[in-house]
Amino acid sequence: MSEQVLRTRVRNRAVAREARQVKFLVAQMVTDRYEPQRIVIQNLSAFGLSCRAIYPPEVGEVVTFTLGPFGETEGSVRWVKGRNFGVRLRKEIDTISIALSRTGFRAQDYNLPPDEKFENLMVFEYFRDGRFDKL
Predict the structure, then answer these.
(1) I need a labelling partner for 103 at 20 to 30 A (CA). Which of 7, 68, 70, 74 fits?
(2) Which of 11, 18, 21 lies closest to 97, judged by CA?
(3) Are residues 27 and 37 in contact, defined by beta-carbon separation less than 8 angstroms?
(4) 89 Cβ neighbours under 8 A, 6+ residues apart
(5) Count of C-beta atoms within a 10 Å radius of residue 74
(6) pTM attached to this predicted model
């Protein structure tokens, strides 16, 4: 095998990852490039978030999230694919408390003007994930 193939295989080997909570939470995100906006958190771990936004940040950009009653946390964007992006957080978050939280993660919990694009995104995410059966 060539050296390049070995390096690729080592880089792509399976590594232990933090446990993730699959959720559908709304948070507020602030970046240097955009006004504060609501985002959807698709899953979270102690040091990471997988999110979706109307105006996603760029790789390497530092972002700040308001996580409802759990306050703010900061991290850097590791990857972007369309409107989806992943963030590595600088400090550990309490994923169990956040996952069990019943308040603080709705669009109306953030004092931002209504955004029709975000509301359409929310409806799409809700029905795509099959959550309409719980109505």
Answers:
(1) 74
(2) 21
(3) no
(4) 46, 47, 48, 49, 73, 74, 75
(5) 13
(6) 0.71
Q: Beta-carbon neighbour count of residue 57 at 10 Å?
A: 22
Query: What phi, psi does 55 have (nearest 5°)?
Result: -120, 85
Strand partners, 66: 28, 72
CA–CA dist 34, 47 (Å, integer): 23
DSSP secondary structure of the chain: --HHHHHHHHHTS-------EEEEEEEEEE-SSS--EEEEEEEEETTEEEEE-SS---TT-EEEEE-GGG-EEEEEEEEEETTEEEEEESS---HHHHHH--SS-SGGGS-----HHHHHHHHHHHHHTTGGGG-
pLDDT in tens for each of the 135 residues of the chain? Answer: 333 333 434 455 554 555 665 567 888 999 999 889 999 898 899 999 999 998 999 999 999 999 888 899 999 999 999 999 999 999 999 988 887 776 666 666 777 777 777 776 666 655 555 544 444
Q: Are strands 72-81 and 62-66 parallel, antiparallel or unpaired?
A: antiparallel
